[in-house]
Specification:
Structural class: alpha+beta
Oligomer: single chain
CATH superfamily of the domain at 264-385 and 438-443 and 451-569: Gamma-glutamyltranspeptidase, small (S) subunit
Largest sheet: 7 strands, antiparallel
Radius of gyration: 23 Å
Distance between the termini: 22 Å
Number of strands: 22
Helix content: 25-40%
Strand order of the largest sheet: 6-3-2-10-9-1-22
Strand content: 15-25%
């Protein structure tokens, strides 16, 4: 009771520190394991830490972190968007997948992003405004995960975010940079008033920013549960903002919002060498495509190669080409279209795909395997770097683990702001052309359908079912390759989690081979070109966050130095 009181009150902050220090000295060491949190922002990491030290679970901590990220990293994720969450239960060894992906409203049509002449709209022409907004899923998904694995009362998990939204935080360099770079926020009064000063300038680094509207929204959800978000005044305001948007109004209704269901799904798990790698199933392409890349590379001895060498980057790029070729054709919302998951991960099929890789020459654009009669239609956003989205990892004191990727899609989403939070533009993750050459596209829009994602939260187990590694990243359609890089660094090259995250990024999405500019990979650009790669240098700003547990029980975390993340271990 004393600990609870101290944890809830800011006035007792110094006493809380002393009390907890005393508690850790006198409490038996075997009573609890250490915990770890890794998120994209120090405020979010501290919020998760606060909840865990109050006795919260990994899911409780993830809820607290997500609410704070809604406030301090609004360009990336929040309650106006969606998420995918993997949960590892240390007692059972089971990994469960929670799907909080947005859904299309009842008024969505397959041709919703085509112009009058039948050609696709430009990406930002489709993104900005109400038409791109799907029903937000993260609140109901977190509610579902909390009912399964939460330890603290739901409302308590909102405490850090309510406090920070009320008292304020300092604008970070990254948030300032992204506001300055955006040309659409000023088109919407609520966003303009929040992200710019009285003179119309982007909020300066260090500006103290409060968000009383968001604090009130958090209090309503904390008191009323997820239902307070999906029914009543909050849902009414979301629907009104979308339907009456001054740019590209959409069809989203209160009925669409009330009907939203988060889904508990079977995690997609396959063996890779001596490990068991688990990811999210469709509607995200992340888990399936990562597993395909790993499965193809299992035909090669990567451990004999050096990370970042010409040979290693060539092999990984070619495997990525093959996996992305299948992704473009076969993956969509499996509740609406058949996705040949087992066929795509069948060892014999992956070995056949691996046999297409030549050590001395790039194959160029790879064909998809002949698994179904589907048309290839990459969305217009394939070239977009993905400066939004976020990933967090929590290992709680019981050894349970959360690996969660969350997003509003484009930086600042649709730019529509409601009750202190931004609404997503996730519907632009649908293919803009519903058919190609008379054949259907798996990722075409439809009412109630979830757009294909690239989010790739991952949890790795040993063959005895023990947790060993968790990782994920933002980065648009490049997420898959960022996560694959970190996994290969840890599993094939035995790197610690931070070193694996730090490795220079290289990406191939069945096209150009992208190398991270300003890194040692620049030195292999010409040798790769000699192998037939179309090489480009780019910033490749991943946001990988991860955690690992060694065989002796030691845990460690990693945060991507390319963003503003923080690891807290205790």
């Amino acid at each position: 009771m004393i600990a609870s009181l101290l944890a809830r009150s800011r006035a007792f902050a110094p006493l809380r520190v002393l009390f907890l220090a005393w508690l850790f000295l006198v409490w038996p060491a075997e009573a609890a394991e250490r915990f770890l949190v890794a998120t994209a922002n120090p405020h979010a990491s501290r919020a998760a830490q606060e909840i865990v030290t109050m006795g919260g679970s990994a899911v409780d901590a993830a809820i607290a972190a997500q609410m704070v990220l809604t406030l301090v990293e609004p360009q990336s994720s929040g309650i106006g968007g969606g998420a995918f969450l993997l949960h590892y239960d240390s007692e059972t060894g089971k990994v469960t997948a929670y799907d909080g992906r947005e859904t299309a409203p009842a008024g969505a049509t397959p041709d919703m992003f085509l112009k009058a002449d039948g050609e696709p709209k430009g990406f930002y022409e489709a993104v900005v405004g109400g038409l791109s907004v799907g029903v937000p899923g993260v609140v109901r998904m977190l509610d579902l995960a909390h009912r399964d694995h939460g330890k603290l009362p739901w409302g308590r998990d909102f405490g850090p975010a309510v406090r920070l939204a009320t008292l304020g935080f300092r604008v970070s360099p990254r948030l300032h940079e992204l506001i300055s770079a955006d040309s659409h926020l000023k088109s919407f009064p609520a966003a303009h008033a929040y992200f710019y000063d009285a003179a119309g300038r982007p909020l300066a680094v260090g500006t103290k920013l409060t968000n009383p509207d968001l604090a009130a929204t958090f209090r309503a959800i904390a008191a009323g549960g997820a239902r307070a978000f999906y029914e009543g005044p909050i849902a009414e305001d979301i629907a009104r903002a979308v339907r009456h948007a001054t740019i590209s109004p959409g069809t989203l209704s209160t009925a669409d919002i009330a009907a939203y269901e988060a889904k508990r799904r079977e995690a997609l798990c396959r063996d890779y060498r001596e490990w068991r790698v688990c990811g999210m199933p469709p509607p995200t392409s992340g888990g399936l495509t990562v597993l395909q890349i790993l499965g193809i590379l299992e035909s090669f001895d990567l451990s004999a190669l050096q990370p970042g060498s010409v040979e290693a980057v060539h092999l990984i790029s070619e495997a990525s080409r093959l996996a992305y070729a299948d992704r473009a054709v076969y993956i969509g919302d499996s509740d609406f279209v058949p996705v040949p998951v087992d066929a795509m991960l069948e060892p014999g099929y992956l070995a056949e795909r691996a046999a297409l890789i030549r050590p001395d020459r790039s194959m160029g654009e790879a064909p998809a395997g002949l698994l179904q009669d589907r048309a290839e239609a990459p969305p217009p956003s394939e070239g977009y770097e993905g400066r939004s989205t976020t990933h967090l990892v929590v290992v709680d004191q019981d050894g349970d683990v959360v690996s969660m990727t969350s997003s509003i899609e484009n930086a600042f989403g649709s730019r529509l702001m409601v009750r202190g939070f931004l609404l997503n533009n996730q519907l632009t993750d649908f293919a803009f052309r519903p058919t190609v050459g008379g054949r259907p596209v798996a990722n075409a829009a439809a009412p109630g359908k979830r757009p294909r994602s690239s989010m790739s939260p991952t949890i790795v187990l040993d063959r005895e079912g023990g947790f060993r590694y968790a990782v994920g990243s933002p980065g648009g359609s490049r997420i898959i390759t960022y996560v694959a890089k970190a996994l290969l660094g840890a599993l094939d090259w035995g790197l610690d989690v931070q070193t694996a995250i730090d490795l220079p990024n290289h990406v191939n999405r069945n096209g150009r081979t992208e190398l991270e500019a300003g890194t040692a990979l620049e030195a292999i650009a010409e040798p790769l070109r000699a192998l037939g790669h179309d090489v480009v240098l780019d910033s490749l700003t991943s946001g990988l966050h991860g955690a690992t547990r060694a065989a002796d029980g030691t845990i460690a975390g990693g945060a991507d130095p390319r963003r503003e993340g923080m690891v807290i271990e205790d």
